[in-house]
Structures are given as structure tokens and as C-alpha cells.
Amino acid sequence: MKNWKIKTFSRTLALVLLASSFTANAHDSGADVATLQLQNLMRATLEGVTGTEVIVSRVSIPANTMLPVHWHPGEEFAYILEGTVSLLQKGKKELVGHKGDVMKVPLKQIHTAKTGEESAVILVFRVHEAGQPERVKAEM
Length: 140
Hints:
Number of strands: 10
Number of helices: 1
CATH superfamily: Jelly Rolls
Distance between the termini: 42 Å
Helix content: 10-25%
Radius of gyration: 15 Å
Strand order of the largest sheet: 1-2-9-4-7
Largest sheet: 5 strands, antiparallel
């Protein structure tokens, strides 16, 4: 039963990724993002794991922008749809992700993301305890 739920969740995740990639390719990828945009696409209870929810968001980060430093009460997975983004995590080396890369931020890891000369569009999946804030501001 547990394997069935994991497979179902994995298939759902794959479908959301596929649909998002079609959406991303439908608009002009050469256009710069004017302002930081966060759009929650889905919020759902994770079946079989009491008190856990999944939030799927699309984040558009303008060129030369750094997000506020923060952490999440759960794990975060980011699929880069467009551009390049640097992931800065407290106590860890900077990671640079490009279009098509996937990055992971562990539970309660203090972090931020920044762009360089080009904007970035990221599909973000967060899995965390239901009822907790999506993000908590912090300092590096």
C-alpha cells in the first residue's frame, strides 16, 4: 500500500512538471521578468502521511536579484525552467543551477537564491508539516 502511494505521488509530480514545462515554453523565454513573482499552483495534503502537505509554486526572479534569506519547515525541491540561479545555503558551498537542473534544500536549511545577468523561472515543490508557514525569514 505504501509503495502504491509513493508511486501515485511520483506520477502526479511528473505530470505537474510536464505541464509546467509546456506552460514555460509557451511564452517568450527571451523576455526579462520585471518583478519577483511567486504563484502557488497547488497546495495538497500528502496522502498516507498525516499532517503533511505539498505546495507547488512557480517563482520568477528578475536578473541581478537576491531573495530574502529564509528557511522552510520542510524540504524544498526546485526545477529550473529558465535561466540560471545560484543557491546559497548557510554553511555550504554555493550551487549554480541552469535550465533543466534540479536542486534540493534540506529541512530548515537557511538559504537564499540569486540571479546574475539573466532572470530565472523556477518550479518549486515544498513538502512540509501542514499548517506551518511556507517560509521563515532568517539571517545567514
